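User: Here's a protein and a ligand (phenylalanine). What would the complex look like?
Assistant: Let me lay out the input and then the predicted complex.
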Amino acid sequence: MSQQFHQLQQFQQLQHEQIAIRTGARSRLPVIVAVHSTALGPAAGGLRLWHYPDWREGLDDALRLSAAMTAKFAVAGLSSGGGKAVVVLPEGKELDAGRRGEVLRDVADVIASLGGRYATGPDVGTGPDDMAVIGEITPHVFCRPVHLGGSGDSSPHTARGSLAALRAVARRLYGTASLEGRRIAVSGLGRVGAGLARLLATEGAALTVTDIDPAKRGIADELDALWCSPDEILAADVDVVVPAALGSVLTRRTVAELRCSAVVGPANNQLASPDVADLLHQRGIVWVPDHVASAGGVINAISTELHQVDTDQAQARVMAIEDTVDDLLETARRSGLPPARVAEELALRRLRRADS
Ligand code: PHE
């Protein structure tokens, strides 16, 4: 078989176990649920309500994000599979409360139809109150508000998990996990990004921050952080860049402009394409795969809601991301491979073991 044909075949191969695409009965919007793998257990992954110019781009996002969830669980050592839900919102239109309820019920119907193969959680554009609405229709939902029996907002846990990853990176780079005085640029001040920036400020880091929403500038003032424009932050003269907004920010072009020693943060799918990880490695920039640095939210939710672990133990599991990243960086150093490849191999090993 010619190399080209082989590549084409691989490209055309469907890697996901199941994809449900429906026009919501109430909202008339595209509802997409991608179940990438249930090899390790029933799939979980957040619900993203986001604007896309075309529903096919939403599908593309769901496919990539659900695959990343499989890796996230495998590396974190959790017995869950990877999935993701995306609702494609038309560009330039915001959902009012009534429409939002319709959308959430439409999503809940699709989840219910999957019979437990997929459970949702919060993601970009959704939070615990939305999970409560979904929970009225299907039990397959994480992170409902605490008073309703859920584990509540996952973002503080995601933020703490990213802090743990940053500490491991600091130890690798500077011989100490302390972040005091380190120049750190946080791109994106949403629920996770703002929480992480606050934690970093408490640790004594010298912060530069940005968000596409200029109203977030108040957070910079509050934390005594420098504010820069979103398109300048990646090239900022700092020690570490922390992507905490949407994905695909690391491209061949942006990586060439980086001036930092490491990139590590909670945004999902940071690489525009997998080969960008090699480029970062060639430039000597430490990149911790996003599925490792962003695992704190799911680790807490799944440990407490599915495995009945108490909150202290769940917290310890979140903070153990520091050990995971330590191991990853040490294996990468010894093998000369990029951390992304080491993480990928670890995930594949765990998935293969589950399959056999
Ligand atoms: N947004 C979370 C993530 O990407 C998804 C999630 C959180 C799913 C909590 C379940 C529970 O990891």
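Summary: Residues 1-10 have pLDDT under 50 and may be disordered.
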